[in-house]
Amino acid sequence: MADQSIPEARNPETTRRASDGPGPLDSDGTTASEGLSRRRLLGTAGATGLVLGAAGAAAGYAAAPSSAATPLTSLGSERAMFHGTHQPGITTPMQARGHLVAFDLAAGAGRKEAAALLRRWSDTARRLMAGEPAGTRDTDVARDAGPSSLTLTFGFGHSFFGRTGLEKQRPVALDPLPDFSSDHLDKNRSNGDLWVQIGADDALVAFHALRAIQQDAGSAARIRWQMNGFNRSPGATAHPMTARNLMGQVDGTRNPKPADADFDQRIFVPETPGSGKGAPAWMANGSYVVVRRIRMLLDDWEKLSLKAQEDVIGRRKSDGAPLSGGSDATETTEMDLEKTDGSGKLVVPINAHARITRPDQNGGAAMVRRPFSYHDGFDADGVPDAGLLFICWQADPLRGFVPVQRKLDRGDALSQFIRHEASGLFAVPGGASEGEYVGQRLLEG
User: What's the predicted TM-score (pTM) here?
Assistant: First the structure.
């Protein structure tokens, strides 16, 4: 879990509120606001609560919305754009709910079937992200909601190219990841021909998209694995702040920011065709995503004292400030790796997670982390199956994820409290232009 995070502030270039007025036309000729009008927001909060009877012994349930309730339209009206230079879900602010799902093409399905599937998926994604029904088979799960910042992101695994006869188009950067000593990988929950990331700020909107994608797959592909995640809901804190993980740590302080001068160079494949090793023309403006299911050994972690936990990470648990910063330090205070205490001991331990993951300790390696937490229940002994759905984006995983993970493998203090249980690497092409579907330049090139 590298010491990086995506900013939580809403990006006006990728989101739009219903109150903003007419937006750009979608491929069907409708505007963003017209799409919203087809699935209006409820506009009122459900006034659910217990109503005590006169004697105090009886209670009734107020199921109907109150006419005096405050309209709840802010989250529901947020819209991410489907068409664009890059696919949504990469720089989109972190969402409250997420689903990750991988598919394998069915026996006998090839390039033609894959193209038809990506065309269906892209059309469904465009509709749902605009707050419209998925199509004639819409399940009505999200009937009352707006777009809720929904994003759908599509990628191709290493095996996809062999199944579709496109081996010559497979990027070198998609070569399998090396083995790491911390891996305890379940092959049935790793890799896959196709990968879909779904994110939204409403659980029903996210599930609605997951179900629609599964239905669209039809006989062309079958689910290989699927994982569910969550983050803090937007607006749950008094002011925007970096997310916390299930260990209670501020997680993601040093994420590259889209405003950084070298952000595109680090995260996206160059637009010029063939301008780098493993960068075929169809990957222009795309990115590579590493997906890891990282189980947190929370029972062991929670036995540590606060100081021990902070030494493992290298940052204060309360606010994410570096241990080297002093009492007035903040989360963004620069970490002093050479600072020592009165006994000459490093204030930020040599094996602290935040020290090891710094780009300047890894030859400049950087990636955008955009994870979801997960909790899949408890085992027979009451041990939680919980942790992080680690998702990181980079222009080349051999220059992003791999060098950092190798460094972590050699001595990260956090390693004894986590276990990598599933893994995948996928090539995520650039965004679809108006009238295009995702991956069209690969499948019809």
Answer: 0.84
Closest of 222, 201, 100 to residue 155, by C-alpha: 100
Report the alpha-carbon distance of residue 391 to residue 405 in Å, rounded.
13
Task: List the alpha helices (DSSP H) in 202-332.
Answer: 203-217, 263-267, 298-302, 306-313
pLDDT of residue 445: 83
CA separation for the pair 266, 400 (Å, rounded): 8
Residue 187 pLDDT > 50: yes
Which of 30-39, 79-88, 343-352, 408-417 has the least mean pLDDT?
Answer: 30-39
Contact 400, 275 (CB under 8 A): no
Q: What SS3 class is residue 77?
A: coil
> Nearest-CA neighbor of 320 among 254, 368, 372, 374?
254
251 is catalytic: yes
Scanning 275-360, the segments in alpha helix (DSSP H) are 298-302, 306-313, 353-356
82: closest CA among 30, 146, 152? 152
Q: Is 338 exposed, middle or buried (0-12, 13-18, 19+ CB in 10 A)?
A: exposed
Spatial neighbors of 167 by CB under 8 A, at least 6 apart, are 161
Calculate mean pLDDT across residues 2-11: 46
**Spatial CB neighbours of 168, under 8 Å, sequence gap ≥ 6:** none
From the list 3, 193, 201, 251, the catalytic residue is 251
pLDDT digits (tens, 9 = 90+) for 340-357: 999 999 999 999 999 999
pLDDT in tens, 93-132: 999 999 999 999 999 999 999 999 999 999 999 999 999 9
Distances in whole angstroms, Cα of residue 198 to Cα of each of 24, 34, 201, 338, 366: 23, 23, 11, 42, 24
Token output for 80: 């991410």
- Is the pLDDT at 47 greater than 60? The verdict is no
| Helix H or strand E encompassing 422 | strand 418-428
Using CA atoms, how far residue 361 sits from 332, 356, 418, in Å, is 18, 6, 22
Output the pLDDT for position 361.
84
Contact 438, 118 (CB under 8 A): yes
Answer whether 364's CB lies under 8 Å from 403's CB. no
pLDDT in tens, 364-383: 888 999 999 999 999 999 99
Q: Residue 252 and residue 244: Cα distance in Å, rounded?
A: 8
Tokens 């069915």 locate to 106
Share of the chain above pLDDT 70, in %: 82
Residue 84 φ/ψ, nearest 5 degrees: 165, 180
**Looking at this protein, which amino acid is placed at residue 300?**
D
